[in-house]
Amino acid sequence: MNILVCDDDKAIVDAIGIYLENEGYRVLKAADGLEAIDIIAAEEIHLIIMDIMMPKLDGIRATMKIREDHKIPLIMLSAKSEDYDKILGLNIGADDYITKPFNPLELMARVKSQLRRYTTFGGLETKQNVYQTGGLVIDDESKTITVDGEAVHLTPVQYKILKLLTANTGRVFSIEEIYEKVWNETAFSPENTVSVHIRKIREKIEINPKEPKYLKVVWGVGYKVEKV
Predict the structure, then answer these.
(1) Domains of the chain
(2) Which of 76, 186, 201, 222 has a 20 to 30 Å separation from 20 between CA atoms?
(3) Which residues of 32-55 are buried (b: 16+ CB within 10 A; e: fewer)?
């Protein structure tokens, strides 16, 4: 997922960027509201972290402009702690607010919370080429996978298997079907090949791979991704 960090303090932007990249997010950076708006027009952004006090176009006016066309989750960032600034930010379209100095772990928790809400209750659901069940979201345009807002990294073959099953939630695919659709060749004893990839996918997307929430076996038939 792509996160835009907008602040005229380069040290803060770089520090936030390090934490986000360690969580698997792609980070884009802007030094003022005008630059942020240009990036949003050119890139697919899934969340914005926006400072209030900036040159050229401040965070309040930039947020108002962004809200004319976009529902992207936005966390407002400011050195000000007065209630008025917090209320103003929330009233003009911010989804959350955090005051400098802040705990980076708290900011990461707020980022993940907003992304969960975004992927579950709107935003990504209406896009084309996005497949979702519960907190599992596959964006086939950007070739990214998230579970509850956290990035998941799969091999190309694992990605194809999970995309096939998630795009057809509830449908059971036999091992032979999975092999033929993913490898594009006739299946000859594909059980071990497919089952190994299924196990690896579960290890990456499931909280407890032995009791999977999403990727389930239908004994004697095949595999499916459950509707959640």
Answers:
(1) 2-121 (3.40.50.2300), 130-225 (1.10.10.10)
(2) 201
(3) bbbbbbebbeeeebbbbbbbbebe
